[in-house]
Design goal:
Radius of gyration: 25 Å
Number of helices: 8
Structural class: alpha/beta
Strand content: 15-25%
Number of domains: 2
Domain Methyltransferase: 86-303
Helix content: 25-40%
Mean pLDDT: 83
Shape: globular
Order of helices and strands: HHEEHHEEEHEEEEEHEHEHEE
CATH architecture of the largest domain: 3-Layer(aba) Sandwich
Largest sheet: 7 strands, mixed
Strand order of the largest sheet: 7-6-5-11-12-14-13
Low-confidence stretches: 1-25, 41-55
Distance between the termini: 41 Å
InterPro entries: Methyltranfer_dom, METTL24
């Protein structure tokens, strides 16, 4: 059996070789016939490769699927803030399939999964049994001063809970509940002070960013049992910095495919989506729960355990 890719290569190679032999001034009838034959063959075995050089090839990846279908629902050139496709049946089916890929490719099982925090936005499914140790540490990124998740988890497990958010300033007295450790920092790929980006605006304001490893070093933590993230697409940067020897035992987070509040200039692209899940798979994570958002098709909650 001749594979399509092999046939495409052979035809392209043959045609390009013949093109290099073309005389500069006079072209024979036989050569013209040969060139037309090349065009016909290529249009049959690889539609779009001839006459349409501006069209990007359709790239297929394990976690993202077809790149062309991404452009249909998340146009890579569309910079509209908060853009997400209209909620029709075709879009619903596409997003369901997209979110099902990581869960099907890298599944995990938890017999003690329980929803922690609010019923709506802010609540997460957590695997409780691994948190029953004598000393568990929980990091929560992006609170916006809503501590419902942190309080509920602390009551259930007794874990040491730390919350991080550089977008809300320094909370006043009595705002942070007793037993919750609040830090006015954000997590990112570098230790730096930079402009804050969130749905709260912050025009011209700057905040302190640290890598997850720097935060752990500062707080004298050797390990994290649970990392929770709701940081409006910044979760991509945090995941990219996770190290094998310190990656949390459990991750609960929300993904955002849209151009969150205009701060990114475009939606997430298929390569980025594939990289997120390939990275998590390489670190030994598996999905034990996921919840697509009923209101925002571009948002989904995820709960992962590490082997």
């Amino acid at each position: 059996m001749i594979h399509r890719e092999t046939l495409v290569y052979d035809v392209k190679h043959m045609c390009s070789f013949q093109r290099r032999r073309l005389p500069k001034k006079k072209v024979s009838t036989s050569t013209l016939i040969f060139v037309l034959l090349c065009i016909t063959l290529l249009s049959q075995v690889a539609p779009g490769i001839v006459m349409r050089r501006d069209v990007h090839p359709d790239v297929y990846t394990r976690f993202a699927g077809s790149s062309k279908s991404w452009d249909a629902y998340l146009p890579h050139k569309l910079s509209t803030p908060d853009f997400c496709t209209n909620k029709n049946q075709l879009a619903l089916d596409w997003f369901r399939e997209l979110y099902n890929r990581p869960a099907a490719i890298m599944p995990a099982r938890c017999d003690s999964a329980r929803r922690v925090g609010n019923i709506g936005d802010g609540g997460k499914y957590v695997c409780l049994s691994p948190l029953q140790s004598h000393r568990c540490v929980v990091y929560s990124l992006g609170s916006r001063l809503d501590f419902s998740f942190e309080l509920a988890l602390q009551n259930m497990t007794g874990c040491e809970v730390h919350t991080f958010d550089c977008t809300v300033g320094v909370p006043g007295s009595g705002v942070v509940p007793e037993g919750i450790n609040f830090h006015p920092w954000c997590a990112g790929p570098h230790d730096e002070i930079k402009f804050i980006s969130s749905d709260l605006g912050h025009t011209g304001e700057k905040g302190q960013y640290y890598t997850l490893q720097s935060i752990m070093n500062s707080l004298a933590h050797d390990s994290i049992e649970l990392l929770k993230m709701d940081i409006e697409r910044h979760e991509v940067e945090v995941i990219s910095t996770l190290a094998k020897h310190t990656a949390p035992s459990q991750l609960v987070f929300e993904t955002h495919l849209h151009n969150a509040y205009g701060m990114w200039g475009r939606p997430v692209n298929p390569n980025e989506w594939n990289s997120i899940w390939s990275r998590l798979e390489s670190l030994g994570y598996g999905v034990f729960s996921y919840e697509p958002n009923d209101i925002c098709l571009c948002c989904s909650e995820w709960s992962l355990l590490r082997n």
